[in-house]
User: What shape does this take?
Amino acid sequence: MSHQKRWLCLIWLLACAASLHAQTALTSLRGTVTDPSGGTVPDATVVIENQASGLHITRTTDTNGAYEFAQIPPGQYKITVKMAGFAAQSKQAELLVNQPATINFAMSVQSANEVVEVSAAAQTLNMTDATIGNSVSNSTIEALPMEGRNVPDLLSLQPGVLYLGRQVNPDLDSRSGAVAGARSDQSNVTLDGVDNNDQRQGYAFNGVLRSTLDSVEEFRVTTTNSNAEDGRSSGAQVVLVTKSGTNNLHGSAYEYNRNAAAVANDTFLKAAELSNGLPNKPGALIRNTFGGSLGGPIKKDKLFFFLNYESQRTAENKPVTQTVPTASLRTGNVKYVDANGNVQTLCGPNFSTPGSCPNASPKNDLAAMDPNCTSAKTCPWGPGADPNVLADLNKYPLPNGFSSGDGLNTASFVFSAPNPITLNTYVAKADYVLSDRSRFFVRGILQGDRDSGPPQFPGEPSSFSLTNTSKGIAAGHTWTLRTTLSTTCVTGMFASSWTIPEREPRRTLISSESPRSVPRTAPHSWRSRSTTWWTTLRGSRESTPSSSAAIGA
Assistant: This one.
């Protein structure tokens, strides 16, 4: 062997070894062939055929009557066994991803030209390893209703999975998505054998690249006792497989619509509306999901393609709660609770209304607390409340509830704010069958998402705008060298790319719960961050003065 060939073989072996840590998104089939007396039948011919793709593989049973098909694509197969002196026997079976199947055959002594067809689907039992989990076929994926049409959400239906619903903030509570006691961020999600984990947040039921319902052929969740080939983490092992084209041209077009016709109002928004004499009206909720898929042959039995596009347009309002100054604070009056639990008021200069400051003494408490403020250099606006701060406080809307704030100087302002979101997903895959021993695929996914955050207060522009153009590509080659030796090499990468506007620092007057931006003197600058494999977004915290500091001169 030449020096150059040795190097090529070494590179190939290293590439395959590097991919051993990830699931290969394949399956396997094995079993034994026996005669009517229960004895093994060696040298029997076993043929599996995927009629959709034309895949045709032949094996021969060994001296123990055993056969094995390692690393084959999941799908619907016809398994046929032939042996001289016995009637040929055929069974239909659906082989699911990462779920080794065992199908045994008991031959009958009949005419050689007779074929025994087993009409019922053969039971594919996993008698190979101790993994516990369920595989979900495409028919089940498309039949089950899913809010958001996110395929990994089906993980929540598996035994041993803790699911607390979508109302729980995963940044504050990581219990939702815990599997068999393992933390939610310990789940491992792969797509077509390539890592698809969100390294930045690690939320359960989510991958970096989105998988649409119409693009997923099937998936399996291993909840406990995962094999060494899974690795990476102690949680659930989620394996998804993208659809492939077949010898027949197939396509689909779909649209799903959800509106607010039967939606209940948010509790706090309802209370705020009723307290202001407004009708009990829930915020807008329109989710429109549409798309299409197309798959078929480029060259029959050899080259196939699959395409899918899906878009989700969400016109949704979300309840926003901001903390705003009360009417009393806007006039310069500061309330507090004394040691006896009684509410006291420190009155500002505008307390002239009779009874507005029943506990006040003297007339201007804030000014009296600052007797040394006499110089125009140190107190240009005089002692007491700063009139410029009071002017800023009066720019806030009046409170309409007490779900936030201290109830004395600050209270809540609840309103329904628009939060439009657009999600676009593009999926393309090509499969090439070089021979019955060699297969190759390449798959690409591109996302084009835009999330316009709700405004801080009614009438203001969106508080943020987030653009996601994450993309990924994967390629794999399966090569069967001989009956008992095969190798699969899968490689890929994804880039999580986010673009966010970098705004000038904002000044807040009341609390960190209610940021209020001041007029900007410079235009927005835009920042784009794209990192191969994963992206980390860093933010800066803003210091916020307290209410009393905001009032003082």
The longest helix spans residues 3-18. The first strand starts at residue 27 and ends at 34. The radius of gyration is 33 Å. The chain has seven helices and 27 strands.
